[in-house]
């Protein structure tokens, strides 16, 4: 199985602040890092470092930042299909982090939302039934809808993380195979929290729902029920990319063990997310290939018994 991640690629400019400012407030801060980022890129990089064959499809501008982006992604174990968007500046994210795990992010989407559908499908020529298509909220709703339809037509598994949230994305959720979201997004979509939110999303025909709860861990919901998975304790430095780490490592664990997305996958993913949170930056903060190999090997050794012959991660 291979994974196709379609979305954005950016340079994250991260600043530390004492607290996340409210409307109209100015706060002092310091620059922490300038690093490769973007939700799609984060997810692809982590999947690649987990040893999953991964293709990243994203747009870049014809500018100096694009050259930096290409150079940086080239060192990652990812097949990057970066499509040049004429007349657009490469996308950028401004990340504010308070050192306690909270962050606020502003992301430009000029390239992401100008990504031609035909260029995406041309980059997915070799996608086959059972492969995974992974999407986020950076593309336009129409593009996301068309890519989901294309993926389903090929018999692919579809995973969505509706961040950054845009009203209307909830209409694309019924029938999804996998949905990862946080509490804020759940409230915006269905105005519910916790298990009630997970159950309502499952009732929409979504196969597997993972609702992240920050320091309280996550809820995993599927046809077998809803179960809580605790977070892994760590020293908090920067929460940027923690959710992407959790999602990608959980999916990678399931793929490598040839099982559905389960509690064991989220447990090892929580450990990986803790590593990300304990370091500054974005891609530089992610667990290394060696660290991920150790985590995933331990999960595989513990979980192989009884899993042989089960289907790969799916509904």
Question: How would you describe what is shown here?
Answer:
The structure is a single chain. The chain has a single domain, classed as UDP-N-acetylmuramoyl-L-alanine:D-glutamate ligase (3-Layer(aba) Sandwich), CATH 3.40.1190.20. 33% of the residues lie in helices and 23% in strands. The chain is built from 9 helices and 13 strands. The strands form 2 sheets. A 9-stranded mixed beta sheet has the order 5-4-1-8-9-10-11-12-13, sandwiched between helices. The protein has a 4-stranded mixed beta sheet with strand order 3-2-6-7. A hairpin with a 5-residue loop joins strand 6 and strand 7 (103-107). The model is unreliable at 305-312 (pLDDT under 50).
Brief overview:
With 315 residues, the chain is of the alpha/beta class. A 9-stranded mixed beta sheet has the order 5-4-1-8-9-10-11-12-13, sandwiched between helices. Strands 3-2-6-7 form a 4-stranded mixed beta sheet.
Taken from the alpha-carbon principal axes, the silhouette is: globular
The count of helical stretches stands at: 9
Task: Give the averaged pLDDT, no decimals.
Answer: 92
CATH fold-level topology: UDP-N-acetylmuramoyl-L-alanine:D-glutamate ligase
Q: For the CA atoms, what is the radius of gyration?
A: 18 Å
Cα-to-Cα separation, first versus last residue: 15 Å
DSSP strand content: 15-25%
